[in-house]
Amino acid sequence: MKSGEDSSFLKIKKMIAVSMAAFLASVIMLAAPSQSYGENSYDPNALAEEIVILVNQARAEAGLKPVKMVPYINDLAHVRCRELLVHLSHTRPDGTKFSSVFNQDVLPYSYCSENIGFGYETAQEVFEEWKSSEFHWGHVMDPDVTHTGVAFTYDENSECKWYWEELFVSMQREDSLVLPGEYIPVSHVIVPVSYGDLDGDGEVSTFDLITLIKYICGYVDFNDQQLKYADLLKDGDINISDAVILRKYILGVYRTLPMTIDMLLS
Predict the structure, then answer these.
(1) Secondary structure of 159-190 as H, E, C letters
(2) Model confidence over 28-37: pLDDT tens digits?
(3) How far apart are the C-alpha atoms of 81 and 79, rounded to whole Å?
(4) What pLDDT is recorded for position 209?
(5) Distance between CA atoms of residues 81 and 150, nearest Å
(6) Tell me, what's the pLDDT at 129?
């Protein structure tokens, strides 16, 4: 590797440290405005995703990695949510702990936690209640949790009508275990218009470089279109080399994106 490239890599490493410290607190995840929901006028899946978006926004502001939503854990959260209708507690109606809803043969977690809420009509309201509770907020801000599942239930004939449940788990072998269907909910779909445009605003700028650095460091996920337009070397991999190329393009050193190995060597 040429000395100039060595220098570029040192600069990008320094930039990673500075960028992560300065900008993680300003991650923007725009959640749709909360609404009140009657018996037949809500989308439980959308409400569950809204909770996770709010959770991950708070975690990003604290420099924590996002939790991933898992359909299987959503199903377990729904079981617990229905149980809240008859037993408002972190124990189940049969007297066992909430954690008994899990089957470790199916989900080999290290440990789990639970947030519950009732009587709140919107995701924002129940989230604010959790934020005001040291117990619940500790689960939201736990740096070791990796996955989550959320459920919402409305029952007009029940005492509290609105019931909310979020389960958190910390997975064993996090670096090698991917749960079926896991994903990070977003409030809007980012559609890049060109290589390097990773935030979908139609321009290639420092904000895109920050977004790419966050992806490389594991703080955000990319959709298929972002993955395509972040591969600036077109080598099927997204890593620090792509960040170096994007930085040089922003500085005007490179005039075109994507680059190829042949173009870099010419």
Answers:
(1) CCCEEEEEEEEEECCCCCCCCCCCECCCCCCC
(2) 333 333 444 4
(3) 5
(4) 93
(5) 9
(6) 96
User: Tokens representing 216?
Assistant: 């490389």
d(CA 126, CA 252): 48
pLDDT in tens, 23-62: 333 333 333 334 444 444 568 888 999 999 999 999 989 9
Residue 111: both structure tokens together? 């440990």
Contact by Cβ (8 Å): 40, 156: no
Q: What DSSP state is assigned to residue 238?
A: -
Q: Is 117 left (phi over 0), alpha (psi -120 to 50) or beta?
A: beta
* Residues sharing a CB contact under 8 Å with residue 58, sequence separation 6 or more, in sequence order: 131, 140, 141
Residue keyed to tokens 């923007």: 28
Backbone angles phi, psi at 30, to 5 degrees: -80, 110
Euclidean distance between CA atoms 73 and 252, whole angstroms:
47
Q: Any idea of the CA torsion for 247, 189, 237, 17, to the nearest 10 degrees?
A: 40
224-249: string of b/e by CB count within 10 Å (b at 16+)?
A: ebbeebbbbbeeeebeebbbbbbbbb
* DSSP state string for 48-113: HHHHHHHHHHHHHHTTPPPPEE-HHHHHHHHHHHHHHTT--SSB-TTS-BGGGG--TTTS-EEEEE
Cβ atoms 240, 12 nearer than 8 A: yes
CA distances 249 to 15, 53, 243, Å, are: 15, 32, 10
